[in-house]
Each structure stands twice: as C-alpha cells, then as structure tokens.
Design goal:
With 140 residues, the protein is mostly helical. It is built from six helices and no strands. The protein starts with a helix and ends in a 6-residue tail after the last helix.
Length: 140
C-alpha cells in the first residue's frame, strides 16, 4: 500500500514538472486523483489522457458558464446552475428518451406507409377499371 502511494506521489511530481509548459484549467494532480478513484485499480492512465480529460472538464465548465451568462441576473442562483448542468447529469435519460421518440416516429412512418398503400390499392379518383385508363377512346 505504501509503495502505491509512493508511486502516485512520484507520478504527481513528474506531472507537475511536465505541466509547466502547458496551461490546464485544473490542477492535474486533482483530476488524475479523481480519475484513479473512479477507474479500476489495474488501469494505467497515459499522460495524454490526463491532459485531455483536464481540457474536457474545462470545456464543460466554459459551456455551463456560457449558459449561466444568458440569465439577465447579476447573481447566479442554485436553480440556474441546476438547469445549466441538466444535460450533463441526465445524458442517459436524454438518450433513452431520444430512442423512445425515434421508435415512435418509425412506427408512425410505418403506419403512414401502410395507409398510403391502402389508399393506392382501394381508393381511386375515377370510378373506372385500370384497363380502361390505357384505352385512348376513354380519354376526352
């Protein structure tokens, strides 16, 4: 256990040294700690993944703040934050709803196609046989 902590502290110090040339929105060590906390213990994280995760989290923060800026108020309230982060917290529910709506639309389309075929087969504009339509004597 102590060896793992030593390895992690060495990784953190190496990361801080590499970070000097690169501006990241959050402390890299904190992002890496959170990633490791939520990944399986046997997973190793490449440096590029650590950097890109940090940038991604920064981009999400920027998008949420842009949405918060759309409110006309000078004070940001908790309800505004909840509304702004809703898509990020409920992505699974949103995707399920999207699938449900698409399935419903496909069913409606199938019904429309079936009705269209029925109309073409059974309802005609003129009360004549199809064979008579080809005969030029019936065209006046």
């Amino acid at each position: 256990m102590e060896e793992e902590e030593e390895i992690e502290s060495e990784e953190v110090s190496e990361e801080e040294g590499e970070e000097e040339g690169e501006e990241l929105p959050f402390a890299k060590a904190e992002v890496v700690r959170l990633m490791k906390q939520n990944l399986d213990r046997d997973k190793m994280i490449r440096e590029r993944v650590k950097v890109e995760m940090n940038k991604f989290l920064g981009e999400v923060l920027v998008k949420v703040c842009e949405q918060l800026n759309e409110y006309p108020y000078t004070t940001i309230e908790y309800e505004m934050l909840k509304e702004s982060i809703y898509p990020y917290q409920n992505i699974e529910r949103i995707n399920e709803e999207k699938k449900r709506i698409l399935m419903h639309l496909h069913a409606i389309k199938a019904d429309c196609d079936a009705l269209s075929m029925d109309v073409k087969k059974t309802l005609k504009l003129k009360d004549v046989n199809e064979d008579e339509d080809d005969d030029p004597a019936f065209m006046d």
